Structure formats: C-alpha cells, structure tokens
User: Fold this.
Amino acid sequence: MKSRNYIKYILPVLFLVALVILILFSGGIIGPLSRPGKSVRADFLDVGKGDCILIRTDSYTMMIDTGYKDTFDKVDAFLKKEKIDRIDTLVITHFDKDHAGGAASLLSKYDVGEIYSPDFESVKDTYDAYRAAVNSSGIPEYRMQPGEGLGFEKDGLDFVLEAPQIVYVPDEKNDNDMSLMLRMDNKNESWLFLGDIEKPGIKYFLNDSALCQMDYGHSYTLVKMPRHGGVEDNTDKLLDHVQRFSQGSVLAVITDSVADKADGEVIDELKSHRFDYLSSSEDGDISVKGNGTGELKILKASSLE
Assistant:
C-alpha cells in the first residue's frame, strides 16, 4: 500500500521534471522561442560552384566561406555596394579553393572580428595561403576539433557550430566531410548550412551530431544543400530529417554553376519532398529575408524576376 502511494506521488514529479527539461531544451524559456524574431538577411553570392554566404542583421554580419580567389572581386564589389566594412564572424567550413580561396584577400582588405575553422591541416594548396593570412592578421581564430560543437548568440540570433567527428585522411581527400556544419535559430525558424559534407558527413549529422539531436523544438525553413547539389546515397534521408523538423514550407538553396549544375536526382528528391528550391545556376545571386515567423521573403533570384 505504501509503495502504491509512493508511485502515486512520484509520477507527477517525474512528469514535471521531464516537462521542464523539454521546455528548456526546446528553447521555450531560455532559447530563441522566448525572444522576438529578428529581421535577418542571407545573401548567397554567385561565385560559380562555390560558397560565399552573408548573414546579417542591422548590427551583425557573418560570412560563411569566401568563394574562390578569382571571384573575390565580385565579393568585394558586393560588400562595397552594401556598405559593409566589417565581418564580425567569418566561418570557413573547410579549405577547398571554392570555399576558402578568397580568405586571404578578405582578411587583407576588411576588418574581421573572429574566425571559426575546422582543425585539420589540409593538403590543398589553398590551406597554406589561408594559414599564412590568418597568422599574419592577428585575428582570433577558433579551430574546432572533430566532434566539437559550440553555441553562441549574436544580436538575437542563436548559432550552433559543429565539426563532424571524422578523421582526416589526406590520401582519401575527404576534406569535404570535415566541413563545419552550422544552424541558425531565429525564434520560429531554423536555417541549416552544411558545407560540402558527403555521405559520411551526412551519416554523422543524422546519427551522431549534437546539432541534429537538438532539432526538437525547432522548425527548418531553409537548408543550404551540401556539396553544391551533389547526390549521395543518403541525400533522401537528409531531406526526410529536414522535412520532419519543419512546420511549413522549406527553401533549399543550391550553390551550383551553369557549367556544373546540381545533380538531377537531388532536384527530383527536392520535388518529391515538396521543397521550394533556388540555385545559383538558374538564379545568380540569391537573397532571402526572414523575421522569425517561419515565412521567408525572397528578395533576389533571377528566375523570379
């Protein structure tokens, strides 16, 4: 009889504890859901088959990758046109020339507050130029270890960065799977940026990533497709996951080129998942605005003009 009374009183307590934990980790009290949404803009610059993405609010600017060395003039012109003279946070997802090629030029011409990069010594030629530029700049750089994740808040936006727990093997040229992965949370919407991860990186994201395990309580509205729209055996599983954690329409952005377009199978998968999508090859520069409500506004895309 006493044991039954014990259960009678302990079950409500356990339920309340579980509820509090759920609310806390879903952002209901201390996370993005408790704050008003911010007006935020993402510009996906058309640098060919490469990445240079700007995320900005009224008082904060992040750049994810810098494109090629040869396309920095376009990046420079865009920054000047937009009157941007400081990059608060630079994220280098990995050291391939289409992602880090413009870093040395950027660091020499612009005020950069901090840098996040994966901690491995790439055999790619771009790495030496990047490392020399960072070392001479004196800009603080956080080199993320494999499997390491961190979160930070900037001007009302919550960011989570993670380096996949993958061993770098130079002979296998698995630089892509070393890409830093990033999620940005803005009240009722989450934007996901996956660098160039391939099958092993996607598998890690889905099965082991803390970034992925924290998806409860968030709703994806935008995903930057990995590897410029290249198809993998588990691309469909990645899209299944994004769809599962979305409460409305999802916009996929593909940073491909006219000469090397996204794989047709990826386009078919996006259509079958009923995702909207834009691509650099068809739309050139792409600009998207969000305000935390879950509804995105496309500011620029040539196919819609």
